[in-house]
Design a protein that fits this description.
By secondary structure, the chain is an alpha/beta fold. The protein has eight helices and eleven strands. About 35% of the residues lie in helices and about 25% in strands. The two termini are about 35 Å apart.
Amino acid sequence: MYFLGNPDSLKEISAHGNAKYQRRTKKALIIGAGRTGQTLAPMLEKQGISVKVIDNNEEHCRQTAEKLKKGLVLCGDGTDIDLLTQEGVSEADTAICTTKDERLNLMMALLAKHLGARQTVVRVTRTEYISLMQQVGIDIVLSTRLLAAGEVLAFVRRGSVVSVSLLEGAKVQALEIILPKGSRAAGKPLMKAGIPKSCLVGAYVRNGEARIPDGHSVLEAGDTVILIAEADKVQGIISYFKGGD
């Protein structure tokens, strides 16, 4: 299930149901200092997150350390229970496994979760692993192929399409578009706009304010709109919102 809403609403859902609401990450543990880990670590540090990186490759560790100002880089085995315990994996808000070995990432993430990490993120290449990892308890599974495909789709559909995210193995797409002038979705209540049934308007932003629409909501040119759509119907949906251009 996917929920769209402002942060307070999502916290309320969590309080009244079984859904988990992950608090903001303050401490992150990255296992794997390859290209992904070396890029991610300084990005997190710039956001004010305390970063700790573990990798068994000395050169990778040296390169990563040069890119960090405050973060700690350790040369060691990410499956070493004693090392993870000594380095406070139980205090990590998020443990992120970014090695090229998906099975190793899975094992390290489960180990980190067992030792107390509040949330686990695993990088995979093969999309067939996504469902399995979610079933065994990994919180977030990121497919490099699907993320790359989303970037390519956004580029191919450039113009009013700002970004594309692929959900459920690319069966569903979440699109962020800027509503252009002449769009058939603008200027009338959504219930009367004739929006394709294979598409849901999940949210829109106007003048910096995010809003959750209902049937009476009226979109305007210039609004940033979040759409959830069936993947095989996306092209027609984009044409509808862009005015058929």
